[in-house]
Amino acid sequence: MPKLPHLSGRDVVRTLERMGFSITRQRGSHIVLRRGQSGCVVPDHRELKVGTLAGVLKQAGVGTEEFLEALQK
Fold first, then answer.
1. What whole-number distance in Å separates Cα of residue 70 and Cα of residue 62?
2. What is the value of pTM for the model shown?
């Protein structure tokens, strides 16, 4: 499994939007995204810890390789 990079919350949201997710709402520093039945909550922080990013991807039902591929686009 490839390593996840250190990214900001905005970078993660931008990448997930490229993958078909859309922002449904935001409350404070937490952005809620949805794609069909799956969704996730991304904290809008300057830098997300790798474990937090892994949790967001698991919550969204997105694989690491799939996310890294969309990040490169």
1. 11
2. 0.93
Under 8 Å CB-to-CB from 28, ≥6 apart: which residues?
none
- What's the pLDDT score for residue 1? 64
Q: Long-range contacts for 61-65 (Cβ within 8 Å, ≥24 apart)?
A: 62/16, 62/19, 64/1, 64/2, 64/4, 65/2
What's the pLDDT tens digit per position in 39-69?
Answer: 999 999 999 999 999 999 999 999 999 999 9
Q: Which single residue is written with the structure tokens 């990448």?
A: 15
Helix (H) or strand (E) holding 64: helix 64-72
